[in-house]
Amino acid sequence: MDLQILRVCDRNGWDAALLSWNICAPCRRGHIAKISIADHWQRQGLGRRMVRRAMHGGEDYHWSTTSQSPQAQQFFPALARETGAAFTTRDPVCEHIHAAGYSLPTPHFELR
Fold it and tell me: How many other CB atoms are found less than 10 A from the CB of residue 45?
C-alpha cells in the first residue's frame, strides 16, 4: 500500500510531470493521489500515459482520485471513457491505503 511515485524529467533535469498513487491488491482498489504536469508539457498525452502505467496490472480495480483542479475535471472523465475506470472523486480509500498515510512529493518545474 506504499505510495508509488512516477517522475518524468526533461533533458535539463527539471520535472515535466509527477504522479503519486496507491494500489491495494487485497481490496482491488487504486487511488491517484496527485498528478502534476508542467504547463508546457500539458495536452501532449504525458498524463494519460503515466496514469495508464500506474493502472498496469490493476485495470479492473476500482480507481478513485482526490478533489480535482479544473484541468483534472476534464482529464479524468476523458480517461475514464478511454479506460473504463471510474476515477471517482472524494471516494473514501480502503482501510489499507488510509492506514499507510503519505506525504506527497513536490514537483520541481522549470519556470518559463
Answer: 10
Map grid coordinates 482498489 to a residue: 29
The CB density around residue 110, as the number of other CB atoms within 10 Å, is 13
Domain residue spans of the chain: 4-41+53-100
Non-local (6+) Cβ contacts of 48 within 8 A are: 75, 79, 82
Q: What is the pLDDT along the chain (112 residues), one digit of tens a residue?
A: 789 999 999 999 999 999 999 999 999 999 999 999 999 999 999 999 999 999 999 999 999 998 778 888 899 999 999 999 999 987 889 999 999 887 888 888 887 6
Residue 53 Cα distances to 58, 98, 99, 107, 112, angstroms: 10, 22, 24, 19, 28
The fold of the 4-41+53-100 domain, in CATH, is Aminopeptidase (3.40.630)
**Full-model pTM:** 0.90
